[in-house]
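Folding Task

Wanted — backbone structure
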Amino acid sequence: MHPLHPKLANRINFNEDKDKIDFDTPISRVYPLNRLLELIFSKRNTLVKPQMWDDPFENCILQQTVKTKAGREVSFGTIQQSLYGQCWTLNLEESDALWRIYSHAKNGVRVKTTLNKLWDGFCNEKDKNVITSYFIGKIIYKEANEIQDYFENPGNLTNILTSSAKGIATTVLVKRKEFTHEKEIRLVYIADKNNYDITQGTYQYEVNPTDLFDELLFDPRFDDKIFEVIKAELIACGFTKPIQKSILYQAPEFNMTINW
């Protein structure tokens, strides 16, 4: 595949440090149950505008008003409205923190896939705007003051805004070091306002859930009976990959004896 092919050219930050990442690397994401069922039954994955993410630093660059040398104020409103994203993680370890952070209602489902499967299904090579619309990137973590200093540098900001859509995509691929534990990967879609209604809060694309997901793992606090019903429904609708409930909180059974 040619280096300028969008499947390669639109991968961002994966070779920026010593930890180069192979695209066969597994990744995961926790979906609320209703969102996962919506995806599986509609066969459509959903990206949202970064404004919907919790961290106020998200997409903060394009929320700013910038002044030109002549003193004219410039807004990035249209660019900001054109951005959609979805968060995944390289962290595959199951933990108490995982479920408590990402499964607030105790009904989350962790799905596993690989970078290749996610990226190949998302990047639409038939789209005439493919090179300016579809990106996948690894988050770079920096101190808050480093982020501010970088984007307040007129040269850096000019380079970003004049280096094609890829520069815009990089603005949502930086987070504060306090979030390093997330080991985050993001899909980024930049909509062409002439072909897509950017007032829409989401961007959806077609997926085959069985091809995309390698396994489903339900929250350990999920109700057992409801889990079995949902599992049966998923199998009946054609999902063939493993479906399990986490045993993280399951009490062990010891084979105990006492020498009396």
